[in-house]
Amino acid sequence: MGLVEVDLFISTSLVDLYMKCDLAFKACQVFNKAHIRNTALWTALISGFIENGRIEEGLGYATMMEGEAIFPNAVTYVCIIRACGNIVSLGKGYETHAEVSRKGFLKENVFVGSALVDMYAKCGLLNRAKEVLDNLPIRNVCSWTALIAGYADHGYCEKAFECYEHMQSEGVSPNVTALASILKACIPQNSLDKAQELHCEIERRGLIAKEPILGSILVHLYANSGLLIKARHTFNALSEHDVVTWTALIGGNAGHGHGEIALMFFDRMRLEGGFPNPSTFACALKACACLKETKRGSKLHLELESLGLTTDNDFVGTSLVDMYVKCGLLVEAQQAFEKISNRSCEIWNALIGGYIEHERNEAAIECCKKMQLEGVYPDPITYMSMLRACRGIGSINNGMEVHSEIVRTGLLTRHPALCNSLLELYAKCGMLELTQEVFNELPIRNIFTWNSLVSGYSWADESCNIISSLEAMTLDGIEPDSVSLFTVCHAYSRSGLCTYHHRFSEVVERLGNTFPDYKHHIFMNHVPDSADNLAKVKTMVANMPSWCKRVNWTRMLSESRYLGKSSLGKHAFEFSLSNMHLSLVSLIWNTKFNERDQIKENI
């Protein structure tokens, strides 16, 4: 090896070393002093900048390299392509793609092709990424994994599963990165069967103890899905526990109402030398909210303040406000809120929601106005809270203002839940024409919007319109669910219109529902007390499943006290005695019926 080669080798090694130590200025000094610069030296400098996150500078040196007529090699191109993907620089990406195709790198080097698949996937051009993958002469696990990760990251989980299966059908065995990507795809889909199948494969290959990232994702997936025991078993099988894994376990338990267990794991984490990150603290605050542990929550608040995490961390700030709100401490929630310097929409929503939860609807409306004055734009959750507050105080004018704003922002057509909130507002305020008008303008109607309309007519005791809406719902191809049937039965039970009760029963049977569930039967029992109607009730209950009969006769016995239906009450009482429900006698004993003495003699 000559002196020139030695000089180049030393210079390249030094540049690489300094870049890995994040000493870019030292690397540049060595680079600038080199008398001769070859492709390897340029690539060491370019890749160093890119790997340290200084991507624009790295791409700038790549352009300078070409200007000095030094030709990139496969490693250089891989660095440039990855940089384009990281900053979504499609112009440079297209240019580099054309260049590597022209020079034949795609046929010769699988890593260049894999980098291109990864670049297009990161930029969201998934069809283009798949096209590149399909045209590669050789596809290795890296190229397949790039596309799988792209699908998973952009929410195309089914596509990720298909790609994973296709990869295996071609005889390519998944590596750790591929397994991690496909596991992540299981989380939004809640694909527990697929996740458990992958879990078995990971255990079979002995990767749980060796690769903490796989165990961490599995713990997160199981905890989020409510499989908390399985999450704990997986957690215990890991050789090491990082903050992400601890947080997944703590958050899963807190999110499913197991606050005590969540705080137990939080304490255990600290005893084992782990230090919580902001997300971990947020999960612990959620556990305190779940338990209404104000003392523990306040201690965490003080600790967060000492760490400087309460002023500029959205997640922590939102959890802190939410914790005080759920504990009923609105003053403390407001104080914590005021100390947050950069208040996001989520933090405002936590406070607004708290006011509404505690029936401070006027304060919620004022809070929302203040939020907009501070330049924070409401999201769909804010608007739903506002509509709920307006409904709570019957403020139709404020509600109509919010309605106009929702229409102006274009959110109404994209968020069905907003439509439901609007329907409920107008219906509860007695604006039935507006309710129907909003409903008629909806581009898509689902069971929730239909139920909101039916509920509106129910609140207004519009019996005819309730039946018409129910029939129109079925013509629209949507079958009534338990909520719609419950709502209609409840309305008719209040009105006492026996004719409508039986008309409703006919509608239900015509739809093919053999019988509503026990809740609906309970309300259908509210009929005028006459011999004819008693016979109808007897027939109706006789046709019920055996598990419903006891509940309905029990309810009728109770209701007869308040509604003065002595014949119905007597029959229910006799049924109860025949079924040894002697504890129900007290319900009749306390009534004011004229027949009470007679019933007493029969005991």
Automatic annotation (TrEMBL):
One of its GO terms (molecular function) is RNA binding. InterPro entries: PPR_At4g14850-like_plant, PPR_rpt, TPR-like_helical_dom_sf. Pfam families: PPR, PPR_2. Keywords: Repeat. PPR repeats lie at residues 38-72, 140-174, 242-276, 344-378. One of its GO terms (biological process) is RNA modification. It comes from Ceratopteris richardii. This is Pentatricopeptide repeat-containing protein. Coiled coil: none annotated.
